[in-house]
Design brief:
The protein is of the alpha+beta class and 135 residues long. It is built from six helices and six strands; from the N terminus they run βββααβββαααα. The strands form two sheets. A three-stranded antiparallel sheet has the order 1-2-3, with no helix packed on it. The chain has a three-stranded antiparallel sheet with strand order 4-5-6, with no helix packed on it.
Length: 135
């Protein structure tokens, strides 16, 4: 599959393949593209394997348009939108290997439903603690 045309709408990158199918990916996976101006987004080159934005130092492979996880899970979405959270420290708090948590966040590994609920439960616990803090 090769993408012949791309465009942006909202928080998504869309691609139209050489056989006419339309794919989309969340821009949460591509922070430089997410915050780029329209002009910066339009300055790309297509190669035989993907799309490259030289000035943004961002690459999107054609293959990635076919990934099952084009839309981040709740767990991934939280960590991708809250870069202020120290992933290593968070992982230690719940007794999880920090590398494993990073693999969950980046989509290299998929947590079991139980593990995902455990991580999301800890996120909610921290949120509750923050919301009840007295200033």
């Amino acid at each position: 599959m090769k993408i012949k045309e791309i465009w942006f709408e909202g928080d998504y990158l869309y691609g139209k393949s050489d056989d006419g199918r339309i794919y989309r990916q969340s821009l949460l996976w591509y922070p430089h593209l997410r915050t780029a101006t329209e002009q910066e987004r339009n300055e790309y080159t297509l190669s035989t394997i993907g799309i490259h934005w030289r000035k943004l130092d961002e690459d999107v492979s054609f293959e990635s348009f076919e990934y099952e996880d084009a839309e981040p899970s709740k767990l991934q979405r939280f960590f991708l939108t809250h870069k202020e959270i120290n992933v290593s420290e968070f992982a230690k708090q719940i007794g999880l290997n920090p590398t494993l948590l990073r693999n969950y966040i980046n989509g290299f590994k998929k947590p079991s439903k139980e593990r995902e609920n455990e991580i999301l439960g800890h996120i909610h616990k921290i949120g509750t603690e923050y919301s009840t803090a007295i200033f």
